[in-house]
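note to self: dont lose this again. the chain is below, predicted strucutre after it. 454 aa total, dont forget to put it in the shared folder this time
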Amino acid sequence: MSSAVKVFGQYLDLCQSCQRTSSSDLIADVNAKGQEALNAAIATYRRDPMGLVGVSADEMFAPDYGVNLKRVKLPVDAAASFRCGVPKLGSLLAVVANDAFHLTDTLVRNMPQGLTVCSLNKVPAHLVPLVAEALAYGLDRGGAAAALNALLLCDGVLIHVAKDVKIDKAIQVVNISNPAMPLLSARRVVIIAEENSEVKVLLCDHSQTSDVEHINSQVIDVLAAPSASVELYDIEEGSDASRRYWQLNARQHEKSRLTINTTCLHGGRTCNEYSIDVIGDNAETSLSGLSISAGEQVVDNKVTLTHLARYGRSRQLFKNALFDNSRGGFGGKIIVAEDAVFTDATQTNRNLLAGDEARMVAAPQLEIYCDEVKCSHGATTGQLDDRALFYMQSRGISLEEARKMLTQAFMVDVIDNISFEVLRQRIHQLVEKRLSGAAASCDSCLTVCNTDNQ
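---
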């Protein structure tokens, strides 16, 4: 028996033996398509050669996690006990507790006209075809992990912005993990920006249980219509016991702008997969990420960015600081199709090994099938400059403080890609705290658990 049959087959057997009732026809359809896709994926499963550090899908989902298919409710109202801890952020807040979506009173009261934020179980009828298309597209692109997500999905989040609507406030979705036993949470976020619209979305992954192993399977589907602008910021502050398999599937139409920035501050094992198709002319894509890993933490980033149209411009920048025995991987691929002339694409990966036993594997790739393009890629891995450390010590700065300052300087250009000023400042603070040795905790996250109602 192959590992894929054993690992994914256990979830197929569970769903077939469990009497489950879906809250909507849309979710029921996703579950059925997920089952079909997972059966097909098992038959042809091969470990992704870009899964460089042991975070392939079958390895990540191998432990025997529980799944809340019978929809046991949490004993507390997570939406009412959460409030944003970033001064003057002014976000529109929603909460996903394990895998259940909660609207907050603040979001309901302040929902701008032209914006829809709701559960995937309560999608307005006129949006169902568009959402179903986005869900199907993500399922086709994501392999076995996305198929498993679809099979187990019980709830999710829809963020839809109507044509010509520009949302000033960020939409913040806080993912809380607080299982009392090993649990697999299947989450889905669908972001649809109609023509000439603008939206900023902040996703925060936060673990409240540091001693219970759990895994979060999250798929984000993004559709940027012509001339739309989507900014997506993702922050992970998990625990040593947490695992995360995070997949992004995005499509960009002509003159659209897509900005994605991920920050991994703490976790156990993390795999981030980015799949972006640029299908319209004159589209712009900015993709950046940073991670700080320590102990036995593992972080793997895999990128496939495909230029299918003319005059596309994309920029990728990933930086990783690795301490202790941590492991990192980067597998990046830019594909320029035959008709995608005048594409301008760059991919950069920089890695800092701050521990003697830390290891990093990088494999940037280019596939170019036409002339008249400007493309580059590269990766470097090294340590802090001894001369810079010596110079700072000669000016009265301790060795520990000098290391922290140089590591912060190493990360600064990734953080500066965040156009959202309040968030950018807060990320600087979180990175500084993490480099000082602080683990993820409620008071260091963007959001703060609070017993008071909003």
